Structures are given as structure tokens and as C-alpha cells.
Amino acid sequence: MTEITDKIIAQNKVEQFVSRFEDSYFLLASHVALPLVLTPELVNYLRIEFLKSEKVPWISEADLLLSNLCRPVGYELYVMDEGVRIYLLQKLAENPKFGQKRIKEIARLLLSYIKYLAKTNHFIGDKELQLQTWGAMLYLDTEKTVKEIAFAISQCIDKAELARLLKITQDFKQQIASSGQFQDFLDYAQLCNELLREPEKVTLEKITHSYQVAKLELTIPKIVLSKELDLGELFYFEVVKVDNFGNIIERSQESARQKIEYLGNEIKLEMVYIPGGTFTMGSPKSEVDSRDNERPQHQVTVPSFFMGKYPVTQGQWKAIASRTELKVERDLDPEPSYFKEPYESIDRWQRPVELVSWNQAVEFCQRLSKLTGRKYRLPSEAEWEYACRAGTSTPFYFGETITSELANYDGNHTYGKGPKGENREQTTPVGKFPPNAFGLYDMHGNVDEWCADDWYDNYVGAPTDGSARINSNKNSNTNSTKVFRGGSWIYYPWWCRSALRGNFNSDEADSISFGFRLVSFPPRTFE
């Protein structure tokens, strides 16, 4: 039914009611339309307070409550038809004698009355009083009211209560929308309603969209999210941008979602949600120190996925590698890394694992999948570069150059117009440097990261759907040479670019720069 039809029906109801009595009844009806729940006492209070000079008869109070404009909902409790409420409030606002000023006066009086009811009327519960308060406050401080309702929805742990809050939002929708400031909240409420009633219609885009009210980030109530649908908790971080000389020229606060997998002994794995999208993979010839194997540049569309917030740490590796009962194909050394000492005041277990072959990394993924029941694997080249760039097209996710204040590499060498810096000559604990806009750390430097792809000398014929490029010729030795990305602590800065590709034998585990990070996937449908 359209809003126009609703308005016509409400108008007809009101006109029929007034025609049965007298015109002054219209004034009473419009003055009692703001409260969501009416009592005979409240109607009398409003008539005496605002309409004494309008000669509205006292009998009009009973005539109104017993008319078809209202219906009883409890002992001496009545609610007015919602369409009628909206119509009457609109007419009161348009009345040159009363207008918005009168509506605010009614709202303030109603707040006083609610406080009185809370002390004297034991037939009205806390939820009804809260509802009345919101109904009045909506006309006095819309932002505060919307923020309170939004917070109540986000914290809801009961589906019946959530349905009640969403019904309240629907009842308040016209007044909320009239301010023109809270469309995000209305969209959020609509999403929660769909998840509650028709989850199969909900798209991943809606789930991952950021909803805010007055800088309050709204989260979807877990009661309507299955474990598979839950894309994790919000976390916040600072992203930096540098000029061509490596000076930080911009800082911005960003947020992302992460799911946490607990591996035992207080070891946790943080997986960040990466929204799907299309990007240009590879580097242009104009990029400093770029190579032919990074071309031709091409468009790739990558579905959404989760990626490790950090490279796999020594602690995470040991937690899985030591679980021999999870073995799939090969044994794993629980402590393979060369760097076994603390870094400054941080223990070794926060360093990225290294001295890991591609085959060993795959075994780790298989064991983790077996343990958790969720599919983990190495990222494809396309997924890795898409995640690294995080919407940028520059050589590094923070700009045109790199500095040793932003990543761990051989700082004795420079890139572009950037400065020389520190050569740490070792890995650093993960998370030491600023992340990219997706919330991923250490994508440039620290350790090289294995990808799922077989090595090819260029991108001719490369997939455009984000999948790994695998050699289908099983008799070829090419498939034993795998791709790695990201550069490491041991390399020059140009080797740490977003587009840089390297290759190494899949069974070799003798490089103190090789590590990896994980990917997993959200559901594709919501059933």
C-alpha cells in the first residue's frame, strides 16, 4: 500500500470522526497524536493544558478513545492508528497557529508526564515508558533518540525484542526520515529486519556495509547472524600516506572486520574481511624498477575473502605444526625459524615464521582446515596483490616510495626519491608498521609470502577472476616453481613493491626470508 493511499484512508477516518461530533474534536485528536500510548488521564491532561481556550468539551476525551481512531491495548491503555497519528501530526505541524512549536511543547509535557507515570502507574512497564520517552524525544533531540534506538538494536540478544525495536523504528520512520540525516540508520534497520525475517534475500554487500549514526558504528545483532554469516568484530587502525620523499603527509582512521580463530595456549589467528572488487593487476612500464613479468597489466575481479591480518607467526606455526595427529601428507618442524631470539621487548613467537617451503605451508593450511572445519589455503597471486594494494595503484600502499619507518627491508638502499634508512638484518614482530586500508600488516617486507600459483613469466593468459594460475601439464616440472610476493627484511626496497613477483622451488625450505599468510572465505549465499 502506498503512502498516498495510507494518507487518504487516515484522512477519511479523521473526517468521519469529526463529522460525528464537532470541529473542536479535530484539535483534540491532533494534540494527543504524539504519545504512542494513551491513557484517559493523559488525554485529559493534554486537553486542559493546551485546549482550554479552544472550548473542547470534556466528553470528547471518551469519544476519541472509544472511536475507531484508537484501540485498547490494556487496562486504560489505548493506541492510535499509526496512519492516523502521522496524518494528525502533519496537520498540526502545518497549522499556522500551532506548528512545530506546539509539537515540541507537547513533547516536553509528555516527558514530564512519563516521569510521573513511572512513579505512580504500576500497570505500565519499563518498555512502554521507554517507548513513550523515545516518541517524545524524537521531536526534541532526533539524533540522541536515533542513537539510543540504534544502540539498543545492535546489542539485542532476543529475537522478539529485536522485532519490537524494529517495529518502533518503522513507526518512527517518517519523523526520522524528515530530518534527512539518518538514512544510514534506516538502511541498517531494514537490513536487520531482512536478516530477522528473510535472511535468504540479504546480500553480502549489505552485510559488510558500514552503518553509522553520529559517528557510532552500528553492528548487526549476533542473534540474527549465524556463525557462517558473522563477518567478525570491528577493529580500528591508522593508515598513513607519504609524499615522493617518504614524508608522512596524511593520516586517517579506518576500520575493518576480523574473525578470530583460537589455536590454543592463548595463540589466536586474526582473519580480516577483504571486500570483493575489481583492480588493475601488475605494473606499468613507467613504474620505477618494474619488470616485464609484471605485465601486461589487466583487470581482475576478486570475490570477497578473509586474509590473515599478519604473516603466520612462529607461535601460530608451532600451535599447528606440533599437532601431529592432524598430519595430512608431511611432517612439520614446530620450530623451523632461524630467528629464535626476542626482538627488543617482544618475544620470538610474535615474529613471522620463516624457513618454510611452499609444500610445508600447504600442509599447515590443511592441518588448520582439519582442526577448525573451515577451509584455509594460500592466497592466489591476484588475491594477494588486490589485498596488498587495498584500492591504491602506487608502488606501495602508502605511496610512491618506501621508508624503513614503514616497513622492514634493507634500508641501505632507496626507492625513487625516498631516503635511506635502517637495515635491521632480521625479521621484526608482526604488526610493528602501519597497515593498509584493509587493515593488513607487513604486506611490504619482513618475509616473502608464498602464493598458490605456479610460476609464469608474464600475465599473458592469466585468470581474471581472482583464481590461482595452475599449470595443467602434470608432466612438466614447471609446477614445482611457485610464486612468492611482498619482499622481505633481506631485500632491496624495489623488491617490496605491490606488483613485484618472485619464484622459488616449492620444496625448498632453506631461505630465511620465506613465510606465508592465510586466506579463507565467507559464505556465498545466506540460507
UniProtKB/TrEMBL annotation:
SUPFAM superfamilies reported for this sequence: C-type lectin-like
UniProt superkingdom: Bacteria
GO molecular function, one term: formylglycine-generating oxidase activity
Pfam families: FGE-sulfatase (PF03781)
Coiled-coil regions listed in the entry: none
Signal sequence extent: none
Protein's name in the database: Sulfatase-modifying factor enzyme-like domain-containing protein
Originating species: Trichodesmium erythraeum (strain IMS101)
